[in-house]
# Entry
Amino acid sequence: MEALLSRPAVVALAVLGAILALAASLLRASGKLDEAQAKRLNVVAYVVMGASMLLFALAGLRGVPG
# Structure
């Protein structure tokens, strides 16, 4: 659990979520994904970013050092 609450893990999840959201937008704009596929990829991206925010908050509440 401590590994998930570490700063690198939290930042990695946030960056992964951002990359997925960007990929959804770019792939939709280029026509490689249809609207439904892009929406699903965006949902995955926001779930990953939400997990990052949750872990960030938990780390702060537990006082886990960076």
